[in-house]
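User: I'm putting together a teaching handout on how multi-component assemblies are represented. Below are the sequence lines for each component of a complex, exactly as they appear in our records. Could you produce the 3D structure of the whole assembly as structure tokens, so the students can see both representations side by side? Please keep the chain order the same as the input.
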Amino acid sequence: MSSYALFKKDLASELRTRYAINSLVMFIVVTISVILFSIGNEKISDFLSGGLFWVVIFFSAMSGLSRAFVSEEERGTTLTLQLIASPTTIFSGKLLFNLILVFAMNIIIALLYSALFDSFVLKNLSLFLYAFVLGNIGIAIASTLIASIIAKASSKGTLYPVLSFPILLPLMLTLIDLTKQAMDGTTFESGYIELAVLGCYDIVMIAASFLLFDFIWKD
Amino acid sequence: MSSFELHAENISKVFGRRLIFKDVDFSCKNNGIYGISGPNGSGKSTFLKIISGIISPTKGKVTHSFDGKVVESEHLHNFLGFVAPYVILYDEFSAVENIHFFSKIRGINFTQEKFDFLFQHFGLFDRKDDLVKGYSSGMKQRLKYIFALIHSPKILFFDEPTSNLDNSGKEKVYQTINEESQNNIVIIASNEDSDLAVCSTVLELKNYKIAPKSENK
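Assistant: Of course. Below is the structure of the complete assembly, with chains in the same order as your input.
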């Protein structure tokens, strides 16, 4: 319940300050527009189209998800949080907020992308949806943990994508592969291994996050 | 009376290559007012953060216990109240919303009676629905006391407790310190003579060590 209360506090704060939402919406619009203009009338391959979809998601996540901890650090309220909640509560609350943000952001990106890119046609929707859900969970967990690490650094903006890239790379490669399979219309069973990889990634990340966050948060 | 105990054994703190203090011992239990003084940069705030469990010492051990049982760091926040210039409340929320959110996150019941009493006591009742960003620095300092006291903590840490306060604010703070010290532990870090005058024991952080300064009461 304490984590949910922290989530509600973050949501109320976000709705008033628009710390993350504005930058995310602008980033999504600008990135998709740039891709559209650069493609022009050219026909791009299905594989490239699926890859670009996850590139947009990766950089959008990099522009907005760090705010969960960075905004607390910039406002000087990190100590206040330490005084009212345990590290587990804080991480759970921030993760819940980032999960909602990632799902909202990625659903908007998926809808825009489907509407604007003719080559982005999903023949096996259920395979894509499973990959999408597991991928979003992985992105949210990894981004939240990395945000807590970089929040105290002086060059947060640069450090966040640099630190996130190697951690999110296995997730992104698996997601691009699964998206291609979904666009090719391969059977659900043929994507089992990749889906298992995503599931394992999420489990490893959540376990590592709760184990490490106590140390990150205290010093 | 509270049966809260704090024991700090051989604590040292180093930031980078800079030694702040070395092998410092400190203990307190049940109730009373303890003062920590020392020159600027002597490590008073760092010492307060370490004994309150906010940051870890480089060396040594800090133990908090309540009713003879060690309080795990996971639950420590429920036992302590902290007021300091570097404790910042959320500007985008009103005072009521701040305290309301904090109570919910702590998982304590929002007691309207105590809430009204504290807002009346610190003279913020009429401005309780205003956004904190519209508060003066003195009003923010008063709100920090409400934040620190709303959950009835067993140990209170006040770093520069009267900074930004007018005379009436200072009186309220001293009154609060005296009342709280009847049942709880109050630890003050300050160089103000008037702040240290309310302390029963005053310790001085100097030359990397802590030592009794004087007995005021």
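A couple of points students might notice: The interface with chain A takes residues 54-56, 73-75, 77, 80, 82, 84, 86-93, 97, 101-102, 104-107, 147 of chain B (CB under 8 Å). Helices of chain B lie at 44-51, 95-106, 112-121, 137-149, 167-183, 193-196.
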